[in-house]
Amino acid sequence: MPKIRFSRRDALLATGAALFTPSILRAQDIAMPVDEAFPAVEPVIRDQVPVRRNVSSFVRQDWRDHFDTLGKGAILCDTTSRAVHYWGADDQTYRLFPSSVPMSEEMTKRGYTEIVRKKVGPTWTPTANMRERDPTLPAFMPAGPGNPLGTHAMYFTWPAYLIHGTHDTRKIGRQSSSGCIGLYNPHIKELFALTAVGTQVRLI
């Protein structure tokens, strides 16, 4: 049986090909989901300042900087860093979630409020102002995959303001709401379970 001889040059070429091939495969693996995640035709999110990369401001905060006591718990909605902070009444539980925020300064409400009602599978009734801005909005939308309030909602003392989920994950981290604070559905489900009615809330 003839012996197959490899020169040093052949060995280097073979090694280079082996190293290069996984790179091509990885590039193909990455390219396919991008088309699915960012389709060529999709609803336009209103004109706005480009998304800020706010990793430096997405940091743990101290509830004492915002509340006198924890009471039943406390929620801080930070519209600058686009994050929601939760502190439990036990002073041990803490959660930090990325969020969506209102589209404009005019739609942004700040101050102290509290959670007065919670709802799994919320329905949605757009306000008159929303329907004036967008006449295509329905008068009412039942719970379900198309509902912009996602899977869970928690209502403030302020009418038409709440923390809710969203099925449109592109909105998180962006100025994309009409005044509410939005979370990924798994995150609002977790926060919903932790939060009692009467939990104090601050929006800054």
Provide a descriptive summary of the structure in words.
With 204 residues, the protein is of the alpha/beta class. It is built from three helices and ten strands. Strands 3-2-1-10-5-6-7-9 form an eight-stranded mixed β-sheet, covered by helices on one side. A two-stranded parallel sheet has the order 4-8. A hairpin with a 4-residue loop joins strand 1 and strand 2. The radius of gyration is 24 Å and the shape is globular. Mean pLDDT is 81; it is low at 12-56.
SS summary, helix count = 3
Estimated helix fraction = 10-25%
Structural class: alpha/beta
- The percentage of residues in β strands lies in 15-25%
**Run of helices and strands:** HEEEEEHEEEEHE
**What is the distance, rounded to the nearest whole angstrom, between the alpha carbons of the first and last residues?**
80 Å
Largest sheet: 8 strands, mixed
Residue-averaged pLDDT = 81
Rg value: 24 Å
Low-confidence stretches: 12-56
Q: Please tell me what the overall shape is.
A: globular
Record the strand order, biggest sheet.
3-2-1-10-5-6-7-9
Number of strands: 10
Question: TL;DR?
Answer:
The chain has 204 residues and is an alpha/beta fold. Helices cover 23% and strands 25% of the residues.
